[in-house]
Amino acid sequence: MRSQLLVLAAGVAFVAACKSSTSPSGGGHSTTISAENNFFSPTPDTIPAGQVTFSWATPSNGHNVTWLTGPTTPANSQTLTSGTYQATLQAGTYTYHCTIHTGMNGTIVVQ
Questions:
Q1: Cα–Cα distance between 106 and 93 in angstroms, integer?
Q2: Does residue 23 register a pLDDT over 50?
């Protein structure tokens, strides 16, 4: 029994160690979204109505935030390699993407 518990604990530790730091994290409740290595994180996200901040935390070849759908149409961001971009969102579901990187998409549910 004890050896089975040790094997189980080792397996859990192995799976936790294998989680990639270069993939997007799922979900959250943060009003700050990172534009990282060709993904937004966290996404999808659920936040209260108000301001959301996109942050370029790591040096990159450039990303932008271009809104696809939503109850309002915030201004799109410029292409940035660092810094922040802020948008004010009302209740509803918003989708956005980076026009530079295919598949770099995000969703925000505003309550």
A1: 11
A2: no
